[in-house]
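Question (not urgent): is this output format expected?
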Amino acid sequence: MKLCQASHITDLLLPKYVQACEKLNPGLVERVIEEVSGEVGDALSYRYPQPWPYVPELVRYIAAAIGAYRVIGAITSLMKTEATSENEWIPIQKQWKYATELLEDIVRGRQKLPLEETHPDREDASVAVIAPQKLFDLRGL
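Got this back:
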């Protein structure tokens, strides 16, 4: 199941960048979409078994952001650093970081999706306080 489309990646990158990537490496965008969809799907499969009735928008964004980052990363080494403020890839790097953090939150159960969970976390923790029994009984003094 594809979690995003090429148009979602193009929305995050300028179309000329996607065209340049495709010119250098034909079929790159579709291969990246397949890879990212598989990885994200696998990461979420324990909590949210597949197939899903639809792809939630949050998952679509995560797949598109990670995919866009990988598409650009496949043709340039400038993705490796944020050393200068003139680096035009900083926005996509920030989106990639945010998307991977969101994915981690969903996997750990801190963020919920509008899908049925197979293995939800336990109920909220309850606390029981148990005091040790008294050693001395001073009531008779």
